[in-house]
Design goal:
With 124 residues, the chain is an alpha+beta fold. It has a single domain, classed as Nuclear Transport Factor 2, Chain: A. Helix content is 27%, strand content 36%. The protein has two helices and five strands, in the order αβαββββ. A five-stranded antiparallel β-sheet has the order 1-2-3-4-5. Strand 3 and strand 4 form a beta hairpin. The N and C termini lie far apart (75 Å).
């Protein structure tokens, strides 16, 4: 026969163990120090290319204005970038606008593993 105190003691032990487990640290956004870094530029180019293909927009990557990175939960890196992209006009002129984009990926991995999460024009 089991002791009636065994279950409450076991439950109390589980609560104590759970309370002492380390808390999952929240990832923090870190500013991109060099917007001309090869990886940062490639992420910006990827965002413009994928958006243009998916929405049939004729955009040309012009550069990364600013950005932040964050270690993603479960692996990989989140890139929150403001990119400049040029759009050709009908009269031969081009207009450049800034876009806020969010990209997830693993540097050094295949291109088909990357994801464009957000791409929207910043209204000026």
């Amino acid at each position: 026969m089991r002791s009636p105190l065994l279950f409450p003691l076991g439950a109390a032990l589980l609560v104590v163990v759970a309370a002492t487990l380390p808390v999952a640290s929240r990832a923090e956004w870190v500013p991109v120090l060099d917007v001309n870094d090869l990886v940062i530029r490639q992420v910006g180019q990827f965002a413009v290319l994928v958006y243009g293909l998916a929405h049939r927009k004729d955009l040309a990557f012009a550069g990364v204005v600013r950005g932040q990175t964050e270690n993603a939960v479960g692996g990989g890196t989140n890139y929150r970038l403001v990119v400049a992209a040029a759009k050709p006009g009908g009269d031969g002129s081009t207009t450049t606008a800034e876009y806020d984009c969010l990209v997830w990926g693993v540097p050094g991995s295949r291109a088909d593993t990357w994801k464009l999460r957000r791409f929207r024009k910043i209204q000026s």
